[in-house]
Hints:
Elements (H helix, E strand, L loop, with lengths): L24 H15 L1 H11 L10 H25 L8 H17 L3 H27 L8 H8 L9 H5 L3 H12 L7 H4 L6 H30 L6 H11 L3
Amino acid sequence: MWWHPRRRQFRSVMTFGTAGKAFPASVFKRAQTHLFELYGSIPVAVQRSFADLDHDMSGGSDYLFVLDGLITKTAAEVWATDRILSSKLAVLTTMHHARALYETHALANWVLRDVRPRSLRVLKSLLVERERFENTAARSIGKLPSDIASGGRKLLEDDTVKRLPSVHDMIGDHQDLAFDEAIFWKYASAHIHPGYIGNAAVDARSERVMMEQIIGAVVRHAAGVYNCFVRTYELELGDSSGALSEATRYATY
């Protein structure tokens, strides 16, 4: 048959870092030390220090939930990455978490430069997606009780509040985000998929280097999110300050 492996015109040697081709634990041991801090003590310190500030809530506190959500999302993505490594699952799948952290870093970098109006744009974009889901679901399972409150409806109808800009436009002059855009956002994991790059072959060394770069990006962009908060609000992290500095140095180009 034409589809038999021996008759195929290409061969992929990608292992996704599993089974007999799994990397030695030492490869990621140093990174995991930072991952543990990036989903443990550091986000807790950032959240507590941020919560202790005297925030202006005269116009509502929704923007605080947006910002706290960025911290929580970052910790969750790092935790998921650590679980993959600790469970000896397919390391290449951490690409999705690296990409999510890249997007969160870009969003934090952008929204913290003008918090109030930009937080509204975050909320509006989320509400638009929710409304689309409800409308789409109604086509198949019938009309659902809406999860959008009256205040959300007003925001959806407010033409003065725009939706989020593209991730590319959020980057601005941030060097790390600009450098990583092609690999961790623009083309995501396409460049390491044999069928996409055309030659349909990935050697073991290239695969290993790619996975090391992915884990490095997880550390880099998680630390990047927390550093955005530390710089913007001059947060004091206590003992976790050193751990964040070490993680930042580890993943610096």
